[in-house]
């Protein structure tokens, strides 16, 4: 359906609900479809009984939020309908510059989360399919030129972790003006402050430099590669959903005057 293509081209997520079987006499027959957008609105089609359609709409909205396609049976009194909900989710892309051990840990977490992963490096000894079997692309060669030719959009996150930080600066200069949703650099503050100074001298706008995350990752503690990788992916997710990355838990204590105080 054209409406699905239009939604996906616009960066939205949708679900296609298809009737598989039904005991309804008229509408809601096998093959009938409706389209639900990421906001839970029916934007096309009809599957019959209003109560069953509302149940299907809610299930489609839930499926989109989970990124999960599934088959489900719905009922309303003696009316039964079996539907298949096909979810069309936009794919988040992750570009990793470097192919060392930390990059391998970042890649493993991102792969579990369903990212399309491209890894760019100039070291053939570490940029191998054995180390990154699920990566969508392994790009070996000139890092800057490969970044220039990469497709970067608002669903793209970029993490710069080149060997000995040798190519972090030219890589950052290459992508800082891109539409990437997230740009993170592993290098320490001193190095990146120098990068910023150079970018400022080159006329790069301050708001572009401000969106670069350095040091990269949320403050979760831990110094092991896997722990750092987790903090990096956590920060990427926080930026994706425009969240501060704090605790979700709330603890309330009653004070002596009967008021409740919340502690985070």
Q: How would you describe this structure to a colleague?
A:
The chain is of the alpha/beta class. The chain folds into two domains: 87 residues, no CATH class; 148 residues, 3-Layer(aba) Sandwich (Rossmann fold). The chain contains eight helices and 13 strands. A six-stranded parallel β-sheet has the order 8-7-6-9-10-11, with helices on both faces. Helix 3 packs across helix 8. The longest helix is centred in the first third of the chain and has 17 residues. The radius of gyration is 24 Å and the shape is elongated. The model has no long low-confidence stretch (mean pLDDT 89).
SSE arrangement:
Layout: H1 2-9, E1 14-22, E2 33-37, E3 42-45, H2 50-66, E4 70-76, E5 79-88, E6 93-97, H3 101-112, E7 116-121, E8 137-140, H4 143-148, E9 156-160, H5 168-175, E10 182-185, H6 189-201, H7 206-210, E11 212-213, H8 225-240, E12 251-254, E13 260-263
Parallel strand pairs: 6-7, 6-9, 7-8, 9-10, 10-11
Antiparallel strand pairs: 1-2, 1-5, 2-3, 4-5, 12-13
Descriptors for this entry?
2 domains, single chain, elongated, Rossmann fold, 264 residues, five-stranded antiparallel beta sheet, alpha/beta
